[in-house]
Design a protein that fits this description.
The protein is of the alpha/beta class and 233 residues long. The protein has a single domain, classed as P-loop containing nucleotide triphosphate hydrolases (Rossmann fold, 3-Layer(aba) Sandwich), CATH 3.40.50.300. 40% of the residues lie in helices and 25% in strands. It contains eight helices and eleven strands. It has helices at residues 20-34, 53-63, 93-101, 120-128, 139-148, 162-172, 177-192, 206-217, and strands spanning 2-11, 41-46, 68-69, 73-74, 89-90, 105-111, 114-119, 132-136, 153-158, 199-202, 224-232. Strands 3-8-2-9-10 form a five-stranded parallel β-sheet, with helices on both faces. A hairpin with a 2-residue loop joins strand 6 (105-111) and strand 7. Helix 2 (53-63) crosses helix 8. It is globular, with a radius of gyration of 18 Å. It starts with a strand and ends with a strand. Mean pLDDT is 83; it is low at 1-35 and 226-233. The structure holds guanosine-5'-monophosphate. Guanosine-5'-monophosphate binds next to strand 6, strand 7 and helix 5.
């Protein structure tokens, strides 16, 4: 079992400890540089269920309202407080299958007994308009995106430990024991694939994790080098 994950983000320009003001300055430069001509970009955010991707994303979007978050389609039932069209498009299995068969999904996958997919049209439209589009998706979908969009930036969010992840999943208390165990099992597979992503960020401190994501977003992909050491005992 993975008990400890050591994370080390290195940037070739040596600027691994840039302050957030500077990051925002870099963002402004990046957006200015983009405006002529605008250059769309796909950002894939993946990480095990319960790792806190949602919270990270909400903060990221508040700080960078120019980012466009793709709203996925799912056959999963809404959790309490979730809203159709804001959190997901909640659809039936036949509706989902029809979208997939008509190539209206950019990627899709089955996860813990439900289907999840990215509606193609809005993402393609936004990219064409030069927007930066964020997909918050699981591993199989991320792999499909990396095949079709090799320039997509892949960010993998890691838990501080697998025990911490289990606690978070149980604390959420929105699912049956069987569903929690399925999510935990899947989490192990996903964490083992973290090296397929451009960078890996451990989410044990929201502010630090956000800062690392911002650095990755506003650093040109060829200049971005990251490494992870996973210690198994
Ligand atoms: P949840 O049921 O907890 O909202 O999501 C379960 C998993 O599905 C999460 O890992 C989430 O990132 C992933 N997911 C959400 N939307 C999509 C999607 O459109 N495509 C894929 N492949 N995975 C998704």
């Amino acid at each position: 079992m993975i008990s400890k994950i050591k994370y080390n983000l290195r940037l070739l320009d040596g600027g691994s400890m840039l302050g957030s003001t500077l990051v925002q300055g870099k963002m402004a430069q990046g957006l200015l540089a983009q405006s002529n001509p605008p250059e769309g970009k796909l950002i894939v955010l993946t990480g095990p269920s319960g790792v806190g991707k949602g919270t990270l994303l909400r903060s990221l979007l508040r700080r960078h309202p120019d980012l466009y978050l793709s709203i996925s389609m799912t056959t999963r039932a809404p959790r309490s407080g979730e809203i159709h069209g804001r959190d997901y498009y909640f659809v039936t299995r036949p509706e989902f299958d029809r979208m997939a068969a008509n190539h209206q999904l950019l990627e899709w996958a089955e996860f813990a007994g439900n289907c999840y997919g990215t509606p193609r049209q809005p993402v393609e439209d936004q990219i064409r308009q030069g927007r930066w589009v964020v997909l918050e998706i699981e591993l199989q979908g991320a792999r499909q995106i990396f095949q079709s969009y090799p320039d997509a930036l892949g960010i993998f969010i890691l838990p501080p430990s697998m025990d911490a992840l289990e606690q978070r999943l149980r604390h959420r208390a929105s699912e049956s024991e069987e569903a929690i165990l399925r999510r935990l099992d899947r989490a192990k597979t996903e964490v083992n694939a973290a090296n397929e992503f451009d960078i890996r960020v451990v989410n044990d401190n929201l502010e630090q994790a956000l800062h690392q994501i911002e650095l990755a977003l506003f650093t040109p992909k060829p200049d971005l080098k990251a490494e992870i050491e996973t210690v198994a005992v």
